[in-house]
């Protein structure tokens, strides 16, 4: 588990204070994958630097499995850093080292005996599917394979947390999915906690159990994927499950509703039930239905007939667990 409590980072720029992190708190349980999304300048890189202790937070704490990593002595800092393995956008491998030598590097740094290193490296290369490339050099590997080496290297010191900073931003869509599948497999096998910093919603949808949105150094929205998708008031719902294009123009003056729902509701005949129960016409303006993990999610934009009983219909939908926003009449 990783626990971040009230993390603040203030940089001095001349006589001015720049607040890069403004009280960030989050808790990711062991074995879960958590995404952190945010626009440029939101504070993502600062958060990564504070979590990996490359930068000292101005205040607040970071703890892994209850053990605080911040505010430790210089001697303890090296051990503390080993609890969080780091995967970068570009694998940053040593070109002059073979695949296995790259993975061995963090173990050499801490003086691990050679036989132990060899066994660990072989195990890790098997885990990431690169055994037959052990003797190859980075220049002979594809982008996805290089990222696999980076992941194996990050796991060499048996960290409790894997922190991935834009791990797929330099990869094509197919390789992105392969790397995300690998991260999920590693989480399952090693029961490791994973934090993924990303600007790609696809990554959140494919791999994350939960997500936080960072804005101007603060977490403005967070929750399990199901919670954020069915939160009609948040902005992550329509970002994760956008409606395709512009809703088509239709005749009529009836009110427009946006519906977000999941799980049991997704299998219910929502439209025909409104139509039958309230004796009104319902027009689908746009819709998006997606299967994420085990769960089905739907985002529909409907237009009701002008004389429909709007309040009764909205109350009925809400009572069945569907998140509803009234967009007004067209
Ligand atoms: N060393 C620094 N000195 C002064 N200000 C800084 C420093 N590092 C970051 N900042 C400021 O802190 C804020 C957050 O920056 P940060 O790089 O963490 O954002 P980001 O979300 O990673 O952006 P991007 O996606 O563009 O990398 C910005 O306003 C930035 O200008």
Automatic annotation (TrEMBL):
Top-tier EC class: hydrolase
CDD domains linked to this entry: ABC_MetN_methionine_transporter
InterPro entries reported for this sequence: AAA+_ATPase, ABC_transporter-like_ATP-bd, ABC_transporter-like_CS, ACT-like_dom_sf, MetN_ABC, MetN_ABC_transporter-like, NIL_domain, P-loop_NTPase
Gene Ontology MF terms: ATP binding; hydrolase activity
SMART domains per UniProt: AAA, NIL
One Pfam entry name: ABC_tran
UniProt superkingdom: Bacteria
Translocase listed as a keyword: yes
SUPFAM superfamilies registered for this protein in UniProt: ACT-like (SSF55021), P-loop containing nucleoside triphosphate hydrolases (SSF52540)
EC number of this enzyme: 3.6.3.-
PANTHER family, alphabetized: AMINO ACID IMPORT ATP-BINDING PROTEIN (PTHR43166), METHIONINE IMPORT ATP-BINDING PROTEIN METN (PTHR43166:SF30)
Name of the protein: Methionine ABC transporter, ATP-binding subunit MetN
Biological source species: Glutamicibacter arilaitensis (strain DSM 16368 / CIP 108037 / IAM 15318 / JCM 13566 / NCIMB 14258 / Re117)
Gene this chain is encoded by: metN
């Amino acid at each position: 588990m990783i626990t971040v409590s009230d993390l603040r980072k203030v940089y001095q720029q001349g006589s001015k204070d720049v607040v890069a992190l403004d009280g960030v708190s989050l808790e990711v349980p062991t074995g879960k994958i958590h995404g952190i999304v945010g626009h440029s300048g939101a504070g993502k890189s600062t958060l990564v630097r504070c979590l990996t202790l490359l930068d000292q937070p101005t205040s607040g704490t970071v703890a892994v499995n209850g053990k605080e990593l911040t505010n430790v002595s210089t001697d303890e800092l090296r051990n503390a850093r080993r609890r969080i393995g780091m995967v970068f956008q570009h694998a940053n491998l040593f070109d002059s080292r073979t695949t296995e030598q790259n993975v061995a590097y963090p173990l050499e740094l801490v003086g691990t005996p050679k036989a132990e290193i060899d066994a660990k490296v072989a195990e890790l290369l098997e885990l990431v599917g690169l055994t037959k490339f052990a003797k190859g050099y980075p220049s002979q590997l594809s982008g996805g394979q290089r990222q696999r080496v980076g992941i194996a290297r990050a796991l060499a010191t048996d960290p409790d947390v894997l922190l991935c900073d834009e791990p797929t931003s330099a990869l094509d869509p197919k390789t992105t999915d392969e790397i995300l599948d690998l991260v999920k497999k590693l989480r399952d096998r090693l029961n490791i906690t994973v934090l993924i910093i990303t600007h790609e919603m696809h990554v959140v949808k494919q791999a994350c159990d939960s997500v936080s949105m960072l804005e101007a150094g603060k977490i403005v929205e967070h929750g399990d994927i199901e919670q954020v998708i069915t939160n009609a008031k948040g902005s992550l719902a329509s970002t994760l499950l956008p409606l395709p294009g512009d809703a088509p123009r239709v005749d009529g003056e009836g009110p427009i509703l946006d519906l977000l729902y999941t799980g049991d509701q997704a299998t219910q005949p929502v439209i025909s039930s409104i139509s039958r129960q309230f004796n009104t016409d319902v027009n689908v303006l746009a819709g998006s239905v997606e299967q994420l993990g085990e769960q089905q999610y739907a985002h529909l934009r409907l237009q009701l007939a002008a004389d429909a009983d709007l309040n009764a219909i909205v109350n009925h939908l809400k009572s069945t667990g569907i998140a509803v926003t009234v967009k007004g009449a067209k």
